[in-house]
Amino acid sequence: MRIAVDAVGGDSYPKVQIEGAIEALEKNDNINVILLGPEELIAKELNNYSFNKNKISIFNAPQIIGMDESPAKAVKMKVKSSIVLGLALQKKGKCDAFISAGNTGALLAASTFILGKLEGVLRPTIAALYPTIKGFRLLVDAGANLEVKPEMLYQFAIMGKVYSEQVLGVENPRIGLLNVGEEEEKGTEVLKETYKLLSKTPNFIGNIEGRDILPCNADVFVCDGLIGNITLKFGESLVEAFQILIGQGIKKNKLSEEQQQIVLKVISDVISPFDYQAVGGVPFLGVDGVSLVGHGSSSSRAIKNMILNAALCVENKVNSKIVSSLKN
Amino acid sequence: MRIAVDAVGGDSYPKVQIEGAIEALEKNDNINVILLGPEELIAKELNNYSFNKNKISIFNAPQIIGMDESPAKAVKMKVKSSIVLGLALQKKGKCDAFISAGNTGALLAASTFILGKLEGVLRPTIAALYPTIKGFRLLVDAGANLEVKPEMLYQFAIMGKVYSEQVLGVENPRIGLLNVGEEEEKGTEVLKETYKLLSKTPNFIGNIEGRDILPCNADVFVCDGLIGNITLKFGESLVEAFQILIGQGIKKNKLSEEQQQIVLKVISDVISPFDYQAVGGVPFLGVDGVSLVGHGSSSSRAIKNMILNAALCVENKVNSKIVSSLKN
């Protein structure tokens, strides 16, 4: 299994990509990694590491798409970028998956454009991992589709369910439709129609509310990309806001050094479920291939986990399971 | 100034309403309170308290609208309920404001139906108070209008700004439009149009993201009721999720009794900004009158604060300021 890795995405390339690749190879014997980016840059950094030379290769992609570049324009203009060439390799069957910690918009545009849509899929979607008190769960759509039709939300739910099962390892994932109340007649026309479409799905638990996310009252949270993006970013800001408040609390209570350590230890345990590095990245679902994207600040651990998740997508045939689920 | 109080709303009536009213009278000399509900029930409870008899009166409203009753139906059928009669008193000019900790939907329906819309207002809206690291700020709409037009969002922003200034005491409140990114061209067509409409408003700071709520990067957060309701309930669930995680952290770290006390003291300081009782309730904005609603679990402190906020709406002429702001 060949996983193509964008070696020049994010804030700390190519170091975290190389280290992440080496760590992933130690975890899964079936993986080969192709690093994409300017050949010299990668080769020079690779020299600092010892690894199985049969398992890691370089594919020269001289152009780099910056984190702030306009996605559509960058993908169109930079045809020799790691993102465009990596996905093209996959399209040609020369690798099985692509991962990147680079420009999310560019990766979404290029994935849809180059890989194309999976059979039966109306709109590819980007999922996100939502931190709950029981660990990460899937939120879909996270911002790719701001305006949706009921049929799209229905498909997001089905695709999210397959990914949760096959990659996140959630057994019988419960699908919940984010809404303003639990009753079937609540919400907009789009939500009411979506409820009807989903009502035939065995794992659909009905409408859920904003207060159901953190206590993990569902495993796949379905909503449009506007709601998904806003709640996701809100969730991501929790830890920092909390740390500020804890700092103020420590100061106000004039804690001794020793007392501070106790508080900080408990807090660090409390916020550990919210550690995004542990999950690596999120999938584009509904494209005819495997494409995952991670935070620009991804560590080598995040890259490793992204590679392993991409491998799970391939090994567990996520896409063919999506296609057959959508036919039911 | 006469404030009508629904004495039979919420979980702990009429005790919290009576105590809240007495506490409010101590804070603001200009207030008279009219308690609405079954006369005997209220009179009996009132007997337990000493208070200025000239300041508190009872208005008999024999019917009670339950927390779970269908709003439209309840308002139509229970014409002798505290909610319907309290708002009718206001409509007739026999009181200046109405507050309730009862059925929010019923209060919204009755407020719009009985008080009518304020001059120039397209849709009345319900605001919510959003906890930030700098204290409570206003989110509008919180669930009354799930599908909106740009002109409505524009009006929500203006009404929210007036309330923030006049009642919450925020100086020069910054208006932010919740969106998926900061750039003007981001978001749905409705959001792009709203951005244009708001761009002439001096205090408009542009699009803001989900991560801008907790750090208080705006003072009035504008969105449709679907987004507002979901993010609000998500925010309201934070404290409980947090307490569960802290409990687990304390257990895992096997803290002594004394160490636990230190952690819990810091945590209690940290979550104190998220105490809804301190703010009491939220306003329906855009109705031709003053109508505030609080949580069913409102304490006497919450009721007191709701009465004081209602008085501020009257004293600071919130409604006439909204009308003139909308004309600009």
Keyword list:
12 helices; Isopropylmalate Dehydrogenase; 328 residues; alpha/beta; eleven-stranded mixed beta sheet; homodimer; 11 strands
Could you please describe the fold and organization of this structure?
The structure is a homodimer of 328-residue chains. In chain A, 44% of the residues lie in helices and 17% in strands. The first copy, chain A, has helices at residues 15-27, 39-46, 71-77, 82-91, 104-115, 150-166, 189-198, 225-236, 238-252, 257-271, 300-315, 318-327; strands at residues 2-6, 32-37, 56-60, 97-100, 125-132, 135-140, 175-178, 204-208, 220-222, 281-285, 291-294. Chain A contains 12 helices and 11 strands. In chain A, strand 10 and strand 11 form a beta hairpin. Chain A is an alpha/beta fold. An 11-stranded mixed beta sheet of chain A has the order 3-2-1-4-11-10-5-6-9-7-8, with helices on both faces. In chain A, helix 3 (71-77) packs across helix 5. Chain A folds into 2 domains: 1-121 and 286-317, Isopropylmalate Dehydrogenase, CATH 3.40.718.10; 125-282, 3-Layer(aba) Sandwich (Isopropylmalate Dehydrogenase). Chains A and B meet through helix 8, helix 9 and helix 10 of A and helix 8, helix 9 and helix 10 of B.
